[in-house]
Amino acid sequence: MSPPDSPDPQARPAAARVAGAMESFSRDIGAMSAFRLESCIHCGMCADSCHYYIATEDPQYTPIWKVEPFKQAYKREAGAFAPLFRLLGLKRAVTAEQLTQWQHLLFDSCNLCGRCSLICPMGIDVTALIAQARHAMFDAGLAPPELYAKAAHQRLTGQPEASVEPYRDQLKAIGARFDVAIRLDETDVEVMLCVPRTDIVQYPAAVAALARVMAFLKVSYTFRSDGLVAENYGHHAGSPEWQRDISLRLIDQAIACGAKTLLIPECGHAYSVLRWEAADLYGAPLPFEVMAVTEYLAKELQAGRLKLGTAALESATFQDPCQLSRKAGLQHAPRTLMHAMGVNLKEMQDHGAFSFCCGGGGGVVDIESAAPLRYRTVETKLREIAATGAATVLTSCCDCRRTFDDANRHFADHESATVRNAVRAAGTAEAASLLELIAQHLRSDETAA
Question: To bridge 281 with a disulfide, which of 76, 81, 84, 244 should be the other Cys (CB 3.0-4.6 Å)?
Fold first, then answer.
């Protein structure tokens, strides 16, 4: 579904696709991006950091290689030695066929997790270059159809897909089902809440947990009918324009209700989009603070307003959401909350800022063609989980939960007994919501006493 004022780029001729991609990439390239493209020393460390390369040992999954057509175009058309490259034919013009092949590398095999950027010894933000390349692919009509359709629908309606009942009605139904008040469309509040579409559809207990915790804290809050969905499929599809339009729904609603804080639930990329990118797209500083739910609750805990009882968990490991732990530095907040509940935490070998992605972020979990590679890649994470010996996997990201649950079903139903047995210990441990655990262990002053 495409907005009427934006003709479907996927229907454009091949030559127009290439021209659109190159024009978009050229528009995005500034001094910093040019510096990044020129600075790579081909050391291979980004490959060793990438879960796609580690799972396959296929050099095409080297992160910096994923922007090769755009590096090729830059050096041919705009680099310091561009005339020489063209004269000697050292860099050929990018073709439509080449771009079509690169769709797999830029979307199916990249979660925009940032691990390659963290590891790069030259300080190259490889993830930012890949995001710019995704912008160009969108303009070339080469965004995956699943992401394009969801982004177009969300831009028009606020929902990434049609539903029998509007999400606001489903939200009310969740409140009734879990016996918790859902405050909707109120004004003059301290906090505005949004909610992942994934939680509404698959994990409604997490939605109820969010409302229950806010009520416990006696904070004035509201959900907003016209700004409910936390995810931003414009970002996933690679369109800054659509990303801005989708973000504006939340920004406008937060301003309308007078919120001082826009609280992002358990959705890593939703936080990243609103915390780090929304102000630039909005064109001005946001008149409210953007906070992740674990960040907010850790502050409430430290202030003494949130009190938690002991969780009856044998042991747990924690899956760090990439956008929260690596990009935002919020690896301590969830651990502070778990410590307050007495959780016996068994860390994975790679955790915190160095944690491996679940394999579903960046829209990859929604791309059908990406599934075979995603299942192969998630084995790395499942084996790390299994090695901890933990009985429970906790996370603060709905896409991590969804990716693990999908992997559980896949390995149970489709893989050989050998593969199933190799990942059984992790593959049968469903990922649980940290927020739900917190909601289950709230302690009032009387109980705490």
Answer: 244
Q: How confident is the model at residue 89 (pLDDT cuts 50, 70, 90)?
A: confident
By percentage, how much of the chain surpasses pLDDT 70?
87
**CATH 3.40.50 corresponds to the domain 9-143:** no
Give Cα 53 distance to the centre of its chain. Answer: 20
With helix as H, strand as E and coil as C, how does the chain read?
CCCCCCCCHHHCCHHHHHHHHHHHHHHHCCHHHHHHHHHCCCCCHHHHHCHHHHHHCCHHHCHHHHHHHHHHHHHHHCCCCHHHHHHHCCCCCCCHHHHHHHHHHHHHCCCCCCHHHHHCCCCCCHHHHHHHHHHHHHHCCCCCHHHHHHHHHHHHHCCCCCCCCCHHHHHHHHHHHHCCCCCECCCCCCEEECECHHHHHCCHHHHHHHHHHHHHCCCCEEECHHHCECCCHHHHHCCHHHHHHHHHHHHHHHHHCCCCEEEECCCHHHHHHHHHHHHHHHCCCCCCEEEEHHHHHHHHHHCCCCCECCCCCCCEEEECCHHHHHCCCCCHHHHHHHHHCCCCECCCCCCHHHCCCCCCCCCHHHCHHHHHHHHHHHHHHHHHHHHHCCCEEEECCHHHHHHHHHHHHHHHHCCCHHHHHHHHHHHCCCEEEHHHHHHHCECCHHHHC
Query: Residue 87: CB partners within 8 Å, gap ≥ 6?
Result: none
pTM of the model: 0.89
Over residues 21-70, the pLDDT tens digits come to 666 665 666 666 777 777 889 999 999 999 999 999 999 999 999 988 88
The alpha carbon of residue 327 and the mean position of all alpha carbons in its chain are separated, in whole angstroms, by 11
Find the distance separating the first CA and the last CA of the chain, reported in whole Å: 57
- Decide if pLDDT at 3 tops 60: no
Distance CA 257, CA 311 (A): 35
Which tokens go with 16?
Answer: 């127009």
**Contacts with 336 (C-beta within 8 Å, 6 or more apart), sequence order:** 298, 301, 302
pLDDT score of 174 more than 90: yes
Confidence of residue 84 (pLDDT cuts 50, 70, 90): confident
**164 Cβ partners below 8 Å, 6+ apart?**
none
**What is the pLDDT, as a whole number, of residue 212?**
97
Residue 425 pLDDT? 46
Percent of the chain with pLDDT over 90: 73
CATH 1.10.1060 domain span(s) along the chain: 9-143
